[in-house]
Amino acid sequence: MLLLKLSAADLLTLDERHRMVPHLAARWKHFREKDVSDTEREAWAESLVALARAMVDADRGHVEMVVECSAAIDESVTPKNAPTIDVVLLGRHPETQGLSVQLVELKRWSTVTRVEAATAELVSVPGMSKPKKHPALQLGATFETFAGVSGPLHGLTFECGGFAYLHNATENSVKPLLGFDAPTGAYSHVYTGDRHNQLMSDLRKHFGEDSGYSYAEILLDKMNLRNTPLLDAMIMSRGEDTVFTLRGRQKEVAEHVRQRAAYVFDDQGEAGRRAVFVVTGGAGTGKSAIGLQLKAEFEAAGREVRYASGSRAFNGAMKHHVGYGNTQFKESFTYFSSYITPPAEPLDVLLCDEAHRLRDRSTNHRLPPEKQGIKPQVEELLDASRLTVFFLDEGQSVRPNEVGTVELIKDAAERRGTPVVSYDLRAQYRCGGSDAYVRWVRDLLNPSETVHKWVPDGLMHIEVVDSPEEMERIIYHEAHAGASARMVAGFCWPWNKPRGDARHLEADVRIGDWHRPWNADSEQYCENGSVPPSKIWSVHEAGLGQIGCVYTAQGLEWDWCGVIMGEDMVWRNDRWVFRRGKWKKDKETKVKRVATPGSLDDEVRRKTLDTAQFETCVRNAYHVLLTRASRATVLYSTDEETREHLRELAGDVHLHGLRPSRENLPPDLRIPHQKRPERGKTGKNRAGKTGSLNSQMPLF
């Protein structure tokens, strides 16, 4: 748990805009599940600002402040009751040039008195009914939780200390805290309002001048707020023992599936036992991580497992990037439409990801009409396996023929007499772990009477640009620095097929003089082999030069994502206006171009789709695109009024060091993204592997 990560200078700017305290209060409620008290609000407004001003006065405004931070990374200590430190200061030490950490307790006390003459460990504070511990004791205990065996700083080399800042007090008014018998040590320093100069001097001793690096990222990484990207984790594990760190509710879901599996697969039990799980959750809540971890565990136990998806982009990345050269691994990833004809013997386990993309009926363009699906697709999937797990987010359904809902799955299972167990995931692990960003996206696309402006939290970054050229410069800069990055857009331009022997791509996405192609609408390489097919556009190095859409982005993530909003969703006065577009074909070139601006997705813009359904599909598509980034989203709209609206909600990004450029990461955190494995280098063969499910693959 942490409420905010910003430099001292940025925190002051945020406070000047009257956005700091509302943001902290919203984050507090998210974690604590209750409203913050007025007293706490006043303390934030007064004490955090006082500390930030001292940092700036000491010419250390670049030092980062992590506010209300819990050291607990053990799920047994839930966010609702996790103890926190007021502020963790992180920067570069002026002598060692390494990480420097100061733990800070902020007190608004103006005076204290001893409780007992013999000790200074307890003091009385006017207005408080119970005695309070000397802040040094609290800071010492906090250090143990941060640097102890289970703490986020364990194993790191760093300089650390701590102090209490009583900005309302004078040295004379809090003498019991400063006496000869007061606690001593690196965490016993006490600064008062009249010791401002001493505080500034000591801050300069603890922190050097600005190096350009974000040292707070070291703490966030150790707190598991910067997760290993899904595809990187799969490649590092070579498709076998995945390295996802399942946490909290994710662990509960996985454990309950294992327990139910033991019942279903019990050789002593009745034949034909089946079970169905439905796991719901928004983008980035860990649905795929759970599914892929379970896949690996069940395979290690010798079970017949398949991983089905409704996303060609996700399957393509798994089969042709992670599983390159490993036929067995590739064949374990299938589509929902792969089960028109059920297996001769039911699979042991079928894991259905992106299940909101279930179709009413299965269709396969490679099969003749008599072999197309004749019953609901969900029934085909239930028939195919003894244990079926569905993962879905109904807010990501982007086509009218996508019918996957919790109700649909439950009804189908219950008609078979199969029990259904449901789970809902809420904790956010993508988008930098920023629930504030997820709420901002939701409020942006579904506005209420209250306008919610973005408040920088140091976990996720948003900026609105004035042109596609500016967006492209940012995305290319980050990609060349080593970040994963892509540009995507609403489906507002025609999508021409590759032409000629060279499979030339038309520059379909046209904004003024800026013209770029969509990702290739092809199963083959295009442009004389220099442009990847659509199934691996999201992960191929050469995919950066094309624009993706919701169908090639869904289920995947990048560090940086540039999102172009087209004319299908524009802001007018106080609401979103949704438009259906039209295209025309040039008589000479036979190339399709925009005739009427708006949605050009043939499945969505058709007249048979009513207005409410059309708006839902467009809105959900942008929700998918806006939640693909793990560090930063760059926004651009082709409509000027919409751009102004986005800029008003996103705010000004011209704050010190706010853009989380990869170049600002400490070198040790610039871990290269994994390249496609070499052929034949995807791990040992699983054939014939048996064993106990619970003894094979521990969750890290």
UniProtKB/TrEMBL annotation:
Identify the domain of life: Bacteria
Q: Where is the Schlafen group 3-like DNA/RNA helicase domain?
A: 274-639
Biased composition range(s): Polar residues = 691-700
Instruction: Give the span(s) annotated as Disordered.
Output: 657-700
Which Pfam families would you find in this protein's record? SLFN-g3_helicase
Q: Which InterPro entries match?
A: P-loop_NTPase (IPR027417), SLFN_3-like_DNA/RNA_helicase (IPR018647)
Provide the protein name: DUF2075 domain-containing protein
Q: Which organism is it from?
A: Streptomyces tubbatahanensis
Supply the source organism's classification. Bacteria, Bacillati, Actinomycetota, Actinomycetes, Kitasatosporales
